[in-house]
């Protein structure tokens, strides 16, 4: 069974996640060593059609993530950022040299 990439909602109050299987089948179809037009993508050479497919896949996954992210209110995001800022300040204070 191929692996997957898990995308998790960054809000601590939310347990949403999306598991995206590795696109091994897409790469197998779109990689073509004899293609006239090649472009490098993550160290691999892909045809223009392959790049378009990869782009479409990325946009599809981004759409899934965006659809979830938009279910949260601005207030929820601001509350999370504020909490993180507090934790960051505490962490910085903990590692800062004492007596300065
Ligand atoms: Zn969420």
Describe the model:
The protein is an alpha+beta fold. It has one domain (4-95). It is 51% helix and 18% strand. The protein is built from three helices and four strands, in the order ββαββαα. The strands form two sheets. The chain has a two-stranded antiparallel ribbon with strand order 1-2. A hairpin with an 8-residue loop joins strand 1 and strand 2 (17-21). Helix 1 packs antiparallel against helix 2. It is elongated, with a radius of gyration of 21 Å. It starts with a strand and ends in a 5-residue tail after the last helix. Residues 9, 11, 14, 16, 68, 72 line the site of zinc ion (ZN).
Overall 3D shape: elongated
Count of β-strands: 4
- Let me know the largest β-sheet: 2 strands, antiparallel
| Count of helical stretches | 3
Helix content: 40-55%
User: Spans with pLDDT under 50 lasting ≥5 residues?
Assistant: none
SSE succession: EEHEEHH
What is the domain tally?
1
């Amino acid at each position: 069974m191929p692996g997957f990439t898990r995308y998790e909602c960054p809000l601590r109050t939310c347990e949403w996640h999306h598991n995206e299987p590795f696109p091994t089948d897409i790469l197998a179809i779109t990689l073509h060593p004899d293609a006239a037009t090649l472009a490098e993508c993550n160290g691999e050479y892909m045809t223009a059609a392959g790049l378009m497919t990869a782009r479409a896949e990325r946009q599809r996954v981004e759409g899934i993530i965006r659809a979830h992210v938009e279910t949260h209110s601005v207030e929820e995001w601001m509350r999370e950022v504020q909490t993180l800022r507090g934790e960051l300040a505490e962490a910085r204070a903990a590692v800062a040299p004492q007596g300065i």
